[in-house]
């Protein structure tokens, strides 16, 4: 049935002599499951789980090849011979499930996060990078040779480990592209100047690696079709590079993306937020096909659902699709499609929070909506409960639903209470913002899973001790969430609302609006964006260093772009200090200088408050034995904590140990 529905996606194909069981790939993505520049057991478990879930091709994250190219303390160093034994294990695990395994080879050049250990940043020329604010050191001739040797040695290590191929990271303005770009490469020796000279480094690497690894080992090149800035290669220049490198006759495939690491603007496209669609991004991929003929072509970015993937394979003449975040969110996506269980796929919501957001904070990879991602070694296979018990979960937001689902999966009887008539809690609010439809897909998934797992759902009921007394529960999880915080009443004639009112589509009739934001996170920005898109005059005032400071960088870039386009006035570094009858008084955080505004309405996005259920929680805690409190009810934070605590509390409460009270 699925084979008929997605005939291309599940058809076999070959790159060189290597055969793939389907067309689904997880493209290179850093995991930070790395210690001493080597993958950890968590790393191996992470990829093994994806192979087990049925993916055809795993391209592991960018592996460094030389000590000057390890861009973070958590970059893998493939030139270290110790990688061989580790990846022998990774390869054996992936092959066991019929998947194929490649690794990316990279030198980041000047695009580096400087640390104590990594402060010698190199590039073809000493041209600063806008995004990392680094002035690199110009590479010496002998270092260029050393780096080429590093590519050769690393490829050989990976071949010895049993991998099926390697992919050169020619995308996103890393070292290969830094040599190509006349804006970065100012050299006057044989590595710079003419097009041929600028291509020399890449040509040398490809030729030397091919000589070393032989004909059968797959070599591919990842390339940004458009850098989306004026630094990296784009359009015609990209096609010229592809024509030249394809002409070398050594590359077995091409993998296309968009974006550049060299600029704020270009970086927004590396892991594109929900605003962009795959078909918008790759309008001219067919020009690449004309150059490379039948050489396999891979496209990645915003292909998050099987129907999008199938369309790309059929209409755009693409051979493999990268579904990277889709597989971070659900490693079992391919096997669920094959088993005709698409409604059971955990659908990535393009939040960029748990995956790339955490990478940029040097934290291990997670997925905001899947608590097992990055923790596969510990939680991929949770054993069923030895004794079936009965639990209640109070609160049907993300944290409560996650707790209920986890308990039910472990075999327990679960009753989920929700005060409102609709499940979802804050997920209902988030969807009021622009470009957040994918949160709705996740909500649909969660509700359908609750039904599939026979969780008893009671909506429209505020739970008290008396209500709980009517049942016999072995434990209670309180996940009653939070409400928007509204500062104590000031005497003012100005209409005031919370950001949730705006996102809940309450009618805001006023035209001149000020949004008072406290930390630069989504409620304030998204309500400002929504109101401005309705042609209102909007100013956002934030008690943070910068607007949208608390959201992941690529999402922040998009917000800043939209705010500027929509004419939102941005005022960071200010706080609200007084509300007069007709005026708002603001004060600069550092100088104390005051400014006044006369808006018709104020929107408060100043955090959340969990006190509504506090008294009831305390009563429940004193009446019953096994009570845990999680998510915003415990302390308002983000979706990451809500989901993780829901999952973890469900495991803890069913362990029947005293330590279960850790969340109280
Ligand atoms: C956590 C994370 C780390 C990434 N690291 C890399 C990387 O090491 N090399 C690379 O070429 N792209 C990297 N990317 C980009 C992905 O390979 C992919 O192109 C991007 O996520 C867009 O595809 P998607 O919409 O299917 O997720 C990373 C993406 C994520 C989410
Ligand atoms: S953290 Fe967000 S963007 Fe990343 S995979 Fe999970 S849902 Fe998708």
User: Which ranges are low-confidence, i.e. pLDDT below 50, for 5 or more consecutive residues?
Assistant: 658-664
Side by side, the strands of the main sheet go: 3-6-8-11-12-13-14-15
Question: What is the CATH level 1 assignment of the largest domain?
Answer: Alpha Beta
Named CATH architecture of the largest domain: Alpha-Beta Barrel
Helix share, percent? 25-40%
Query: Are any ligands bound, and if so which?
Result: flavin mononucleotide, iron/sulfur cluster
Distance linking N and C termini: 48 Å
Domain NADH:flavin oxidoreductase/NADH oxidase N-terminal: 8-339
Family: In the N-terminal section; belongs to the NADH:flavin oxidoreductase/NADH oxidase family.
Protein name: 2,4-dienoyl-CoA reductase-like NADH-dependent reductase (Old Yellow Enzyme family)/thioredoxin reductase
Pfam families: Oxidored_FMN, Pyr_redox_2
Give a description of the structure.
This protein folds into three domains: 13-379, Alpha-Beta Barrel (TIM Barrel); 390-482 and 610-653, NAD(P)-binding Rossmann-like Domain (Rossmann fold), CATH 3.40.50.720; 486-608, 3-Layer(bba) Sandwich (FAD/NAD(P)-binding domain). 35% of the residues lie in helices and 19% in strands. Helix 3 crosses helix 4 (141-161). It starts with a helix and ends in an 11-residue tail after the last helix. The relative contact order is 0.09. Residues 325, 328-329, 348-355, 367-369 line the site of iron/sulfur cluster. Flavin mononucleotide binds at residues 27-30, 61-62, 104, 169, 171, 222, 257, 270-271, 300-303, 322-325, 355-356, 359, 365.
């Amino acid at each position: 049935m699925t084979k008929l529905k997605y005939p291309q996606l599940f058809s076999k194909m070959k790159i060189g002599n290597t055969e793939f069981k389907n067309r689904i790939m997880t493209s290179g993505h850093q995991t930070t499951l790395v210690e001493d520049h080597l993958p950890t057991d968590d790393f191996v478990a992470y990829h093994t789980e994806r192979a087990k879930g049925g993916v055809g091709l795993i391209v592991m994250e960018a592996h460094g090849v030389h000590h000057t190219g390890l861009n973070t303390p958590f970059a893998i160093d493939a030139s270290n011979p110790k990688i061989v034994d580790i990846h022998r294990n990774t390869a054996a695990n992936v092959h066991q499930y019929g998947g194929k395994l490649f690794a990316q080879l990279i030198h980041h050049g000047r695009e580096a996060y400087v640390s104590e250990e990594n402060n010698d940043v190199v590039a073809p020329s000493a041209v600063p990078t806008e995004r990392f604010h680094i002035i690199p050191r110009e590479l010496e001739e002998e270092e260029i040779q050393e780096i080429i040797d590093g590519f050769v040695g690393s490829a050989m290590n990976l071949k010895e480990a049993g991998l099926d191929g390697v992919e050169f990271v020619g995308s996103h303005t890393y070292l290969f592209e830094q040599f190509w770009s006349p804006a970065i490469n100012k050299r006057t020796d044989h590595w710079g100047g003419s097009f041929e000279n600028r291509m020399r480094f890449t040509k040398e690497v490809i030729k030397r690696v091919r000589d070393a690894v032989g004909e059968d080992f797959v070599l591919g090149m990842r390339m940004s079709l458009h850098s989306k800035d004026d630094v990296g290669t784009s359009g015609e220049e990209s096609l010229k590079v592809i024509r030249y490198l394809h002409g070398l006759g050594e590359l077995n495939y091409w993998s296309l993306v968009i974006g550049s690491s060299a600029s704020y603007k270009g970086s927004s496209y590396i892991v594109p937020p929900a605003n962009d669609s795959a078909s918008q991004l790759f309008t001219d991929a067919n020009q690449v096909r004309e150059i490379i003929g039948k050489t396999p072509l891979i496209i990645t970015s915003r292909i998050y659902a099987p129907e999008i993937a199938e369309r790309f394979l059929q209409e755009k003449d693409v051979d493999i699709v990268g579904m990277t975040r889709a597989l971070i969110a659900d490693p079992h996506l391919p096997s669920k499609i094959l088993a005709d269980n698409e409604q059971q796929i955990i659908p990535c919501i393009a939040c960029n929070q748990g995956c790339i957001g955490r990478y940029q904070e040097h934290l291990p990879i997670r997925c905001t909506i899947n608590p097992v991602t990055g923790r596969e070694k510990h939680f991929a296979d949770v054993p069923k409960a030895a004794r079936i018990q009965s639990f209640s979960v109070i609160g049907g937001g993300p944290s409560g639903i996650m707790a209920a689902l986890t308990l039910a999966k472990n075999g327990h009887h679960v009753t989920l209470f929700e005060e409102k008539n609709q499940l979802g809690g804050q997920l209902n609010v988030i969807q009021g913002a622009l470009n957040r439809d994918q949160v709705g897909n996740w909500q649909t998934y969660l509700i359908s899973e609750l039904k599939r797992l026979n969780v008893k759902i009671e909506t429209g009921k505020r739970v008290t001790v008396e209500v709980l007394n009517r049942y016999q529960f072995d434990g209670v999880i309180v996940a009653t969430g939070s409400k928007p915080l509204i500062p104590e009443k000031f005497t003012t004639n100005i209409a005031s609302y919370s950001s949730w009112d705006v996102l809940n589509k309450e009618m805001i009739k006023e035209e001149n609006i000020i949004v008072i934001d406290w930390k630069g996170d989504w409620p304030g920005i998204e309500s400002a964006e929504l109101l401005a898109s309705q042609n209102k005059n909007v100013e956002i005032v934030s008690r943070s260093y910068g607007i949208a400071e608390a959201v992941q960088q690529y999402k922040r870039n998009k917000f800043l772009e939209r705010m500027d386009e929509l004419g939102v006035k941005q005022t960071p570094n200010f706080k609200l200090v007084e509300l007069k009858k007709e005026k708002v008084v603001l004060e600069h955080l550092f100088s104390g200088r005051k400014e006044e505004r006369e808006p018709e309405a104020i929107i408060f996005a100043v955090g959340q408050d969990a006190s509504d259920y506090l008294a009831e929680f305390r009563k429940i805690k004193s009446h019953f034995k096994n009570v845990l409190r999680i998510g915003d009810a415990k302390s308002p934070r983000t979706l990451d904590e809500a989901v993780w605590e829901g999952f973890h509390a469900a495991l803890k409460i069913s362990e029947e140990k005293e330590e279960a009270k850790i969340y109280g």
